[in-house]
């Protein structure tokens, strides 16, 4: 009997405990729902940041950097094999085009020239004799033709000997400064051996790159201000002489500028230079931050705040200028563009502005 009573008591305790737990859970659920309703009421709007749409003149002036390169540079090489007899210029010397800068031993070449001249004169004398003999029938037409051919062959060898002797005097093929001398008197060279490196820095080139937004405003012959990092107070005048028809791997367009050096040739090849592209007389346009676009500029969608509500607008973007984007159509000056928080927005979402 006692055992039955204990079982009944245990069952009653369990039932009471279950009831108590159920009541606690019910109270917790009510409190949670009340908190949810409070949060929902509190967060009825989406917090966003805004920017007023304005019309402004775009700053398209561009500063592009590069290194100066010589307009002309040449590695002067020997055309004939031989021993260098004289070296007439040194590193740093200025040479004119056509100036003799070194000579190769000419003893054998002079002998060859003398022999070629003798053979040519002999062939001419023989031809005169054959022509006179042909008039009287002393020689045949074939013998006369052979004599004429001998004169032509002798003249060709004479011309070649004169060229060979001329090649013994090594001449500069461009005007410039000797940047490197590779030979000394007594050096033995073969055809193709490097003798001198000549650099012309009276005119230099500066190669830079610009992006597609600047390309429409550049043209061949346009004057460009150029500066060198080592001469911060000096400005040099440059002129665009090349604009690449194709962008490089970074989607920039190579541009080459020609600069006339000053009288002292202060600019040197390899120096660091800066080109300043000036784009004046630009008209004011509507511009908004890049962050105003939903996802990216390619989406062509922008949210604007209108009486506390987000409105989705489709716009026509134009030029991208750094962190600003030109808007050709779809927005008016004075509109309030939403520049952050768009991920939580759909058309008609209530918004609140945060600073």
Automatic annotation (TrEMBL):
Report the GO molecular function annotations: efflux transmembrane transporter activity
Residues annotated as domain CzcB-like barrel-sandwich hybrid: 77-199
Residue ranges constituting the YknX-like C-terminal permuted SH3-like domain according to the UniProt record? 286-353
GO CC, any one term:
efflux pump complex
Organism of origin is: Niastella vici
| Coiled coil spans | 106-164
Looking at the keywords, is Coiled coil present? yes
Its keywords, alphabetically, are: Coiled coil
Protein family per UniProt: Belongs to the membrane fusion protein (MFP) (TC 8.A.1) family.
Report the residue ranges that make up the CusB-like beta-barrel domain in this protein. 206-276
What is the protein's name according to its record?
Efflux transporter periplasmic adaptor subunit
